[in-house]
Structure formats: structure tokens, C-alpha cells
């Protein structure tokens, strides 16, 4: 079974073909990601209207490139999976409509995919990870801890009460005049900074509620940046390193709480797994700290390879294949509408045809 995946929910236009090899091992046959960074950098962030138009222009070629790289003709595709939400409505319409046309023309099944499910299932594409596992999903729009019980069976245990973690990185970068996208640039600047130079707050650290909060931290960064202005490159590095240290400590404290709960609820699982996924999972300081936290609690940490942390279509094709194999993809109607908002824990009972 060869599944074509299409991803257009934000500012990456992506297409990929995923299958299993003869031994049943998942295999990415092709994986094309066209980033629109160049088109948004002048604005310091993603401009939805520009993104939608860029998807229209690029998607045909990206799909063709994914098929070429796989050495396939359109008719060789067994199913088409496309991101149907959550995300920017313009991009979702472009991707899902293209997928519908492709599926209809070939008479192959269409599988609408929740983008967060793509991030959530990625570790099963690249590593041997069995259900159930605990997922830390940290991306541009989400910061959640999710109990992953099976394909389409998700329970959200924690979420952010204000900003997402990737958003906090992006906003911090912006107020330090670092270019978009913020996350990688903050990480880079932090390398030459002192993480102890400024003592930023560790939001919610030690609190009983399991959630995240990152907006107070951003305010503290702004205050420090204003006091020090004009900022030297070394100031920027110190602030980035101190911000990253604060974020990491808050994150590991919050995660540790859920590791304990997972242990209690799944005492039969001998080697419990913590998975970190989403764009922020590419951050090496955060990965290392999570690895230590996981080990302390007797968990193994699984993190996708760096190129599969950010948005891509291999994760969408893979989620499609998982859904097909689980018998959860049979009757996705062609009138499935894009859902700009679509919580992951609703995936088990998709609201077919619902607008939002
Ligand atoms: P969502 O998945 O919630 O819908 P999204 O698809 O826009 O949002 P992703 O592409 O999964 O988000 O992740 C992008 C985010 O990850 C951005 O906020 C970016 O700054 C952040 N990010 C990427 N690399 C790093 C890094 N090395 N360190 C910290 N943050 C990073
Ligand atoms: Mg992006
Ligand atoms: Fe994403």
C-alpha cells in the first residue's frame, strides 16, 4: 500500500509517499518539503493570504516531485491523505481540495488527517513505538501532553493556558530582532550565551495542575531587553540562553508530573515511552533535558529525526496508512470540510462535514 500525503496547513507545501517494505517496516519513499520562509521573512511571520497563494502555485509541482522521486505514476498511488486541519483555512482548502480531485480522478480513497495526529504518530514511522505512549507535542500552535492509546484514540492531559511553546520562541525572537522563524534562531544565539545570566521565571514550576504557561516568560524577556537596550549581540545570546533554560526547566517539571501519572495508569507497561514531537522537538537543549527527565522516571525518550520534527507530508501519509490499517479510513466522505480548529482528542470521532 502506497499512500500519498499532502501537507499545506501553514507555510510548508509538502508531499510524500510512504509505504511498508517487504518486512513490514515503514518506509518513506519520497519526501518533498518546500518552505515558504523566503516569502514571509520580510513580514516577520506567516502572512495567511501569501501562504495560501504560494500553496496554489507550488502544490502541483511538489506532488509531481514526490511521485517522480518515488518513481511512481499517479495511478500507482493507493490512497491520498491530506491535512484537513487544524491550520490556516486558505492552505487547508488548497491541500484538501487538491487531494479530493486526485482521489476522485483515480478512484482511490481520500483520508482527511488531523495535522496534530501526523505529529503524534511520527515516532511510529521512524522507531518501533508501541501503544500506549505519552506524547509531548510542542509546536508553533500547540503545547500539549497527550496519552496516545491507539490510532485515533487520544486523551489530552495538559495544555497551555496561554502561548504555545513555539509561539513563545517566535515572539522572543521577534522582540530581540532575530529573523523569522524564531525557534532555530533563538537556539543558535543561545549557543554562545550564558543560561544563568538572567533568572527568568519558570512558569507553573511545582504547581499541581499539569498545564503549561509561557506568556509571563515572554514579558520578563521584554522587560530585560528594554532595560538593556540597545542590545549587543552578546546580550541577545545571554537572553536567548537564559530564556531557553527557563523554558526547558518549566517543561521538564510539567512533563515529570505526567510521567508519574502514566506510570500509575499503565503499570503493566514495562518500558514506558515518552515521545516528543512538533517543531520545537528539534531543539537539542530541550531534547537533552527531556531525555534526562525520562530516564530518571524509567521512561525511554523517542524523538523524531530533526527533519521530521517540523511540518512535512511524510507524517501525514503515515497517519493515513495507520488509519487505513486500523480500519479508520473507509468512509471519509468527499464533502469533508477543512477544520481550522480541530482538537486532537476529537479525532476518534471526527465530525464529518462540520465546518469548525
Ligand atoms: P502546529 O503544528 O501546532 O499546527 P506549526 O505546524 O506551525 O503549528 P510546526 O511546524 O510543527 O508548527 O513547528 C514550528 C514551530 O517550531 C515554530 O514556532 C518554530 O519556531 C519552532 N521551532 C522550530 N525549530 C525550533 C528549535 N530548534 N528550537 C525551538 N523552536 C523551534
Ligand atoms: Mg512552518
Ligand atoms: Fe505542525
Automatic annotation (TrEMBL):
An example Gene Ontology molecular-function term: tRNA N(6)-L-threonylcarbamoyladenine synthase activity
Subcellular location as annotated: Cytoplasm
Record's keyword terms, sorted: Acyltransferase, Cytoplasm, Iron, Metal-binding, Transferase, tRNA processing
Reaction(s) the record says it catalyses: L-threonylcarbamoyladenylate + adenosine(37) in tRNA = N(6)-L-threonylcarbamoyladenosine(37) in tRNA + AMP + H(+)
GO BP annotations, alphabetical order: tRNA threonylcarbamoyladenosine modification
EC number from the UniProt entry: 2.3.1.234
Residues annotated to bind Fe cation: 115, 119, 311
Protein family membership: Belongs to the KAE1 / TsaD family.
Protein name (record): tRNA N6-adenosine threonylcarbamoyltransferase
Amino acid at each position: 500500500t502506497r499512500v500519498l500525503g499532502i501537507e499545506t496547513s501553514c507555510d510548508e507545501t509538502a508531499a510524500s509517499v510512504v509505504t511498508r517494505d517487504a518486512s513490514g517496516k515503514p518506509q518513506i519513499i519520497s519526501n518533498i518539503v518546500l518552505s515558504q520562509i523566503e516569502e514571509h521573512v520580510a513580514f516577520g511571520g506567516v502572512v495567511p493570504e501569501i501562504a495560501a497563494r504560494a500553496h496554489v502555485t507550488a502544490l502541483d509541482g511538489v506532488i509531481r516531485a514526490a511521485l517522480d522521486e518515488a518513481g511512481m505514476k499517479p495511478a500507482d498511488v493507493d490512497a491520498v491523505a491530506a491535512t484537513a486541519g487544524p491550520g490556516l483555512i486558505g492552505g487547508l482548502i488548497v491541500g484538501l481540495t487538491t487531494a479530493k480531485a486526485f482521489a476522485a480522478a483515480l478512484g482511490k480513497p481520500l483520508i482527511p488527517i488531523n495535522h496534530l495526529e501526523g505529529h503524534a504518530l511520527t515516532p511510529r514511522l521512524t522507531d518501533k513505538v508501541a501503544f500506549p505512549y505519552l506524547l509531548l507535542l510542542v509546536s508553533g500552535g500547540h503545547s500539549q501532553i497527550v496519552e496516545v492509546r491507539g490510532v485515533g484514540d487520544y486523551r489530552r492531559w495538559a495544555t497551555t493556558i496561554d502561548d504555545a511553546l513555539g509561539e513563545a520562541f517566535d515572539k522572543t525572537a521577534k522582540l530581540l530582532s532575530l529573523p523569522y522563524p524564531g525557534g532555530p534562531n533563538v537556539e543558535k544565539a543561545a549557543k554562545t550565551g550564558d543560561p544563568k545570566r538572567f533568572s527568568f521565571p519558570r512558569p507553573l514550576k511545582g504547581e499541581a495542575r499539569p498545564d503549561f504557561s509561557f506568556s509571563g516568560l515572554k514579558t520578563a524577556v521584554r522587560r530585560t531587553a528594554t532595560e538593556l537596550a540597545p542590545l549587543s549581540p552578546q546580550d541577545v545570546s545571554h537572553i536567548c540562553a537564559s530564556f531557553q533554560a527557563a523554558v526547558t526547566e518549566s517543561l521538564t517539571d510539567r512533563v515529570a508530573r505526567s510521567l508519574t501519572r502514566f506510570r500509575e495508569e499503565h503499570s503493566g507497561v514495562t518500558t514506558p515511552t515518552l515521545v516528543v514531537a512538533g517543531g520545537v522537538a528539534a531543539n537539542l537543549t530541550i531534547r537533552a533535558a527531556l531525555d534526562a527527565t525520562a530516564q530518571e522516571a524509567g521512561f525511554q525518550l523517542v524523538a523524531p529525526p530533526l527533519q521530521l520534527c517540523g511540518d512535512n507530508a511524510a507524517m501525514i501519509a503515515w497517519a493515513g496508512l495507520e488509519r487505513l490499517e486500523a480500519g479508520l479510513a473507509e468512509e471519509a466522505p468527499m464533502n469533508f470540510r477543512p477544520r481550522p480548529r480541530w482538537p486532537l482528542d476529537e479525532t476518534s470521532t471526527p465530525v464529518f462535514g462540520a465546518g469548525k
